[in-house]
Amino acid sequence: MDKIVENVFIGIEDRIATLVFNRPDQLNAMNRQMMDEIIDAIKTINANEEVKVAMIRGEGRAFMAGADIKEYGSQTSEEFVAFQEKGKLLYESIENSSKPWIAAVNGFALGGGFEIALSCDMILASDQARMGLPEVFLSLIPGGGGTQRLIQKVGINRVKEMLFLGGQFDAKQLYDWGIVNRVLEDADFKLQVMDFAKKLSRRPSNSIAQLKRLANLSLTEMPFDQRIEDEALTVRELFLGEEAREAIQNFIKKNNQEDGK
Fold first, then answer.
1. Which of 49, 86, 143, 257 has its CB surrounded by the most CB atoms within 10 Å?
2. Closest-CA residue to 162 (of 90, 123, 85, 109)
């Protein structure tokens, strides 16, 4: 199923959904209409039971160069509050999804674009990608969770450097800091990202959903012993399920066959 609206595109292939930001002439800068379309697209992907892995990338030279500043700067107080609330829904709909989301950062990911990448489970970046939170240049701060999600991925000194200076950082630097999972050659970036997504799609969805939930739970204020108990209950539930029992028996059968050679 492919779905195209004005500013985004959804493609689904081999159980992998790709959400494409499609305002290349504006470096995929996000206005209110585009935000609504992105939220709808994420909901569509999350609700599709056939989809095992979701990816986001940008068309053209950018992943997303933040908010559309012309529209952003002309908002009334009420419009700004509504924009912020919808942004919160956007980021949380990625984080709270049971599916793994990959940010395929193919170019500039700045401001809200970088915040969308940070809300994803993994960031794969082109070696030409540049990321950052430049809001300080507008006498603002990141308003889409950038100050909080960034600290979940890297030490506070690095976070302050990125926030205070507002500069752009290349993919290799952010890989060294632990923010980017992999840096891939720009020439065959899409192919390498798809290969990674296909590998991930072969993992059992139920296990991945629980792994994502538990990993995110580690970032909450829930006491450690409660989180450990949740983990124990989850593995027990999975162990007693049909999918795991079948996988275990297949593993034993395969090992017995190999031992018999």
1. 143
2. 109
